[in-house]
Design a protein that fits this description.
single chain, 268 residues, alpha/beta, 59% helix, disordered N terminus, disulfide bond, signal
């Protein structure tokens, strides 16, 4: 009799726990964010968790995070979660290096939460505005900045390449080195094409200057000889003038000499 009562009590207690657990998750106000709607957190106040299904710490935090989300309306804060396996670009945009990572966001200002991971700590962090004591993420690391957008694209590209690599190995049975060879060839071809396109664009924007025509050696010598002839022609008049001057001087000297040699005739 006592055993049957114990079994009945255990069944009722388990049933009540299941009902309470289900009601807790049914009241969950957890918001799922991804690559498409992550910008919603730029307005208002948010608590955002970055998690992954394979992360043990994330699995342990999940019930507490779900419970914390049920207080979101009372606290005036939106509680959200991002799965980095489906949104790898966001992990790069926010520079997530450990899981789980929690950010507090208010009117586009980001602060990383590093306190205790329990409901009371989360609630006091929001209610008492303890986030005001934490420095905001610097502007160069702001998730909506241009440089972080570029980083997010690289993260998405790496995730896509990893997916292709796994597909080649699992579905097509290629060895690891075979996949690497394919990636190497594709990288070389794409690099060559991009280099060719860049060269064509540069030549189009900045066309090369046409060099001025150069004279051949024969023409250069001819011009040089012409200059010498011209110079010699210019020198000729000077030489002729000098010769004429010397001739006139000789005539004057000869006349003066002949005059001195003449003697006056005596009168008869």
């Amino acid at each position: 009799m006592a055993g049957s009562k114990l079994i009945t009590f255990s069944f009722v207690a388990t049933f009540i726990l299941v009902i309470n657990f289900g009601s807790t998750f049914s009241k969950s106000q957890l918001i799922r964010l991804d690559e498409e709607n992550w910008s919603n957190m730029l307005t208002g106040e948010w608590m955002v968790e970055f998690a992954a299904p394979w992360c043990p710490a994330c699995k342990a935090l999940q019930p507490l995070w779900e419970e914390f989300s049920t207080w979101s309306k009372d606290l005036g804060v939106s509680v959200a979660q991002i799965d980095i396996t489906t949104s790898p670009g966001l992990s790069g945009r926010f520079m997530v290096t450990a899981l789980p990572t929690i950010f507090h966001v208010v009117n586009g200002e980001f602060r990383q939460y590093k306190g205790s991971r329990d409901r009371e700590s989360f609630m006091s962090f929001v209610e008492e505005k303890k986030w005001e004591q934490i420095e905001t993420v610097p502007s160069w690391k702001h998730p909506s900045s241009l440089q972080m957008s570029v980083v997010s694209y690289f993260f998405k590209l790496s995730q896509g390449l990893r997916t292709i690599h796994n597909k080649l190995m699992v579905e097509y049975g290629l060895p690891t080195w075979g996949s690497y060879v394919i990636f190497s060839l594709v990288t070389i071809v794409l690099g060559a094409l991009l280099g060719l396109i860049m060269v064509c664009c540069i030549d189009y924007v900045y066309p090369p200057k046409v060099p001025a025509p150069t004279l051949g050696e024969t023409e250069t010598d001819a011009l040089a000889g012409g200059d010498n002839i011209h110079d010699s022609d210019e020198d000729l008049p000077d030489e002729e003038e000098e010769e004429e001057g010397e001739a006139s001087a000789d005539e004057i000297v000869s006349e003066s000499t002949s005059t001195r040699k003449r003697k006056p005739r005596k009168a008869d």
